[in-house]
Structure prediction request, 410 residues.
Amino acid sequence: MTATLNRVMVVELTLPALVPGFLVALHYAAQVLRPRWGYGSDRSGTRTPWIVGGMAALCVGGFGAACGTALAATDLALGLALAALSFLCVGIGAGAAGTSLLVLLSGGVAPARRGAAATIVWVMMILGFALTAPLAGHFLDPFSGLRLVAVSGTVSAIAFTVAVLALAGVERRLPARAPEPEAAKKPFFTVLAHVLADPVARTFTIFVFVSMLAYSAQELILEPYAGLVFAMSPGATTKLAGLQHGGVLAGMLLVAGVTLAARGTPLASLRLWIALGCAGSAAALFALAGDLLPLRPVVFALGVANGAYAVAAIGSMMALAGRGDARERGTRMGVWGAAQGIAFGAGGFLGAAAVDAVRLITAEPVQAYAAVFAAEGGLFLVAAVLALRLEPVRARARGAGSLNPILGAR
Prediction:
């Protein structure tokens, strides 16, 4: 949606960049419904149908978005209407499937392995990108609207099939969770208010929003910065982005390896790694703003710090979802997923808009980008402080939610 369909709309259909930008914003806006999907899986007693249903909506939406884009070449209004509905469907599907998947993972993974589990899930997502993009790109040439629809439909069908096969029997191997009796069910807004009344859940929600705002704000400005300030070619800036993603993967693997090897010691604390990742991200962004070091090492270091923060935050999210009533886990995860999605959508837009705004008052592009990088670094420092303020989760009886009180939120 943000790559191929974005390019087709802007280049082949000569539409304003605002059009795909609005459609992607619809996808992120749908993330606000994540708490409702999590609440639904809490009430039903099983997560698998919500994951499968979400994947179905995601795949139908992805296919529909390609159909709408192709249709827009001959009927612009009808094509964009179908694309808008499809992007919204993608957002709903991703929210429903992703929220329930993380809750299922949090209940089935031992506390000491949550960092490694989060890393595996993230690496598989990156691997999916790495496999799908070149294969889809190969079959898209020579380009046509019909070929775009065929490739998108094939990818969607394969993704749904793999997801269903991967989920088969997983939940049956976990302790059974009976559905909540109808008489005991609490209304959604009552449960949501109870979750947000928890100081730890509320602080973690603010942390997720602030950190993801900082994380995503550089997504759309780093490559233009390298091109304008360092005169890098498009190919060179693409390689720079690849270097950053390599750093992200290295940071994730680092956290997974250390938390597994150092079990029972302070180094295994995911809360510690969140703070270190946020502080490291801030330091790299301040270095970018000050033009203090060579660009490539700084970008790689930013990726490492981002990866460490991201995977540790997901591991902590899985642990904190188990606080309180087990029938609120999906709602808790949904609240944090909504904060993440909204912040991610807002961050990319605000980062680019801030650069444009600063450039109106300064003739030097480097000053505009430096101001935004410095602001992102400040947000990451705020996120690090919020992470350290999270209260340790007290140890409970052995089970999926037990944590080490010495090490804090794991």
